[in-house]
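User: Can you help me understand a structure? I only have the sequence.
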Amino acid sequence: MTSENVLLSDIAVVLIVAGVSALVFSKMKMPAVIGYLVAGILLGPHTPPFSLVQNIESVNLMASLGVILLMFSIGLDFNLKKLRKIGLFSIIAGSIEILTMMAIGYTLGNLIGWNHLESIFLGAVMSISSTAVIIKVLSDYGKLKESSTEAVIGILIIEDFAAVMILTMAAPLTSGSIVEMKTIVSMLVGIIIFIVMSIILGAAVIPKIINWIAKEHPGETLLLVSLGLCFAMSLVSLTIGLSVAIGAFIMGVIISQSDYVEKVIEKITPVKEMFLAIFSCRSAC
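Assistant: Let's start by predicting it. Here is the structure, written out as tokens:
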């Protein structure tokens, strides 16, 4: 089969199996994401007699797009007032949660005979949640608009920042090097400066552009420009060492200042749902 045939085959198989599985679980009054995860298990390489997905790299790429679009959509629902309101609480609660889980993981690692480094990374893994999966479950239950959910999303974003720091420190630690405190501090300062400057500069210009496009070209042009800005910010975020999800979220927050944010959400949602289904399936493969 040609590469085009393989790609089309993989997309068709993933979406059909995911759709049928989600329908079955919806009939059982369970979240669609459970169906997607089951579909991922069925499609995975370890399910006999053979894997139904031929090119897993293509599926991985589409899954990454799902995460980006999900975090972009969450950002569209988060205006700056909400961020200011939950910011301090999320930082405190997220820090407590991460430190607590790391302590538990470190203790468990010691109990089963792991060394200090292995125990630390066990705690780190236990302290990080899957932002995309959790938000998808909350969305399925219609909980995204609740104030408590906003705090949960804030904590998940703090966890994403922590994951970036952990991954940055992983390489030197495993090679026996020492990570200096000034390296950690400079990383934190860089993250904060990037976020603050992006939101300040972006909020001054981009919402006006979106407003003009929504008035003059409310159809596919609005969708294309919004997606382009989302992926551009994700690329910038990735380039400076952050996750693509953080960049997508920031651009969502910036565009949320537009008077036509509801139109953007309406345009984005169908595209997001398709790629998010692929992401959920891939998570279980």
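Now, to help you interpret it: The domain at 3-284 is CATH 1.20.1530.20 (Na+/H+ antiporter like fold). Residues 134 and 193 are 28 Å apart (CA to CA). Let me know which part you'd like to focus on.
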